[in-house]
Write a structure and sequence with these properties.
The chain contains four helices and two strands; from the N terminus they run ββαααα. It is mainly alpha-helical. It has a domain of 73 residues. β1 and β2 form a beta hairpin.
């Protein structure tokens, strides 16, 4: 308080921390939930690779495919600093593609607003 009747307002800013994780992580961006997703993906990829090995008998390609499958499953499920993974991004893109979009537009109203602005010299 300064003079009599004067109210002093302090400028206080709100600090919002970023990157706070709700669940514990094994390493940055990879927690127990992502581990479960990666294990499911590895088992599906592993079944396909095992089928390929029984059909062809090629050991070299099978080993490279197994290692690539494990690396891909971890990369697809690991979250970045914005807490989003490749799998989540694909889910969001598919949801947006199939969700109905509504863009209300009336051509007559647009013409009326445009003509009024032209007459007033705004355009």
């Amino acid at each position: 308080m300064g003079k009599k009747g004067e109210v002093k307002i302090e400028n206080k800013s709100l600090y919002i921390p970023q990157g706070i994780k709700l669940r514990p992580e094994i390493f940055t961006g990879f927690g127990s939930r992502e581990l479960k997703q990666a294990l499911v993906m590895c088992s599906v990829i592993g079944a396909g690779i095992l089928l390929y090995f029984f059909c062809t008998g090629n050991v070299t390609v099978t080993i490279v495919a197994v290692l690539s499958g494990i690396a891909a499953s971890v990369m697809f499920t690991m979250r970045d600093v914005h807490n989003i993974s490749v799998i989540n991004q694909i889910k969001y893109m598919l949801h947006f593609a199939v969700s109905p979009k509504y863009y209300p537009y009336r051509n007559g109203l647009y013409k009326e607003v445009r003509s009024e602005k032209k007459e007033s010299g705004a355009w």
